[in-house]
Amino acid sequence: MANTVLRFVVMSDVHVKENKDCIELARLDTGMKAAYAYADGCDYKGLDAVIVNGDFANRGKEEEMLNFKEVFEANLRPGTQTLISVASHEYGSGIPETHERMKRLFHMDPHMHLVIKGYHFISVAPEKGTYYGKAQQEYAFTELQKAFDDDPDKAIFFFQHAHIHDTVVGSVDWGEKELIPVLMNYPQVIDFSGHSHAPINDPRNVHQKYFTCFGSGSLSYTELDEFDKYYGTVPPDCDEFAQYLIVEVADDGAVTVKSYDIITGQFFPCDHVIRPPFTPETFVYTDKRRIKSVKPYFAAGTPISVALDGDKAEVTFGQAKCEGELVNDYLVTVRRKADGRIVRRAAAWSGYYRANMPETITIPIPRLTKGEYTVSVIARGFWDNESTNELTAEFTVE
To answer: Are 245 and 259 in contact (CB under 8 A)?
Structure first.
C-alpha cells in the first residue's frame, strides 16, 4: 500500500476585501484550519505547502493584501511553505505596484520555482491581466526543462492564474492559450489554475490531453461558462460556494487530488488519481469520457408542480439521479396544448456545485398568454447525456 509523502493545498480567487469582516476572510480562516485538521488525522501529518493561485486580493489594494496576509500567516504552521501568485485583480492597482508589494509583504517574486520534498513547483504570473507573453513563456520553458532534467519520471506541479483554454470547466470563457505550446512538451505536468470560479467537483474540472489540468475553485462565489441559463452565467445561490483542492503525493509517485467544500466542511466524493507513467497513452480523464457517460433519470414519484401568478408560471420539480455522477442542469420546455408548439424554454443548473444541493429546483416561465399548456423537464449530465425519461405537467393560464 502506497504511503503519502507530500501534501499541499491549492486555492485561488479568495477576493479578500478591505473590510476585515468580509466573508472571504472568514472562509480563508476556516479553510486553513480545516486543511491542518485533515492532515492531523492522517498517518502522514504534514501540510507541506499552501499555494494561492491568484486573485487573493479583490482590487489589488494594499489594505486587502494586508488583510489576507494577517489571516493567512496566523494560520500557517512551521514547515509549511507558501507560493502566492498574482494576476488580474492584484494588477488592479498597477503591475509595478503589485510586484513591489508582493516582494515587500510576502517576499515573493512574480515567477517562482520551489522544490518541496523533491517535487518541483513552478508558478508564472501573467504579463498583464491574464496574458502570458514571450517572457513568461520562456521562463516556463526554462524552469520546466530544469524539473524534467532533475527527474523525468516525477510529476511537475505548474501554477498560473487563468485556465489553459479549452481544458477544464470554465476555460472556454476564462482561459488563455499562450502557454499551450510550452506545456504540451511535458506530459508529467499537473497544471492548476483559477480565474473562472468554476466548481471543482464538476467532473470536467480535471482534463487530460497533452498534460493534466485542474481548476482550483474560489472562496468567494461561483460562475460557470454555460450560456443558456435563464439567470446568465452566475446562479442565484453563487455565494453559497467556497472550495479548494488538497493534493497528496504517494511514495509510488501517484498524485491524488481531493476537492474540499468549506461551506459544509466536507470533501466532495470525487477524488482524482493521476498515476505514473505520466504519458498521454495512460491518461484516463480525457474527452473520451463523453462516450461512456451514464444518462440521468427521474425516479418514480419525483414531484413536479406549476404555480401561476398572472402571466408567469413557476415550475418546481425534484432532482433527477445519475449513477456515479451528479446532474448538471435541467431544461424546461413549455408547449401549447392545442398544437404542441414550443412557446417557452428555460434552463437552470442543478446546484451540483454545492455539497448541500437543494432537493427541488424552481424555474420561472414569464410572459405567457391565455391558454392551456404542457410543460416537460429533462435532466442533463455533463457530457451532453440527457435523461432517459422526463417529468410532465399541464396547466392553464386564465
So the answer is: yes
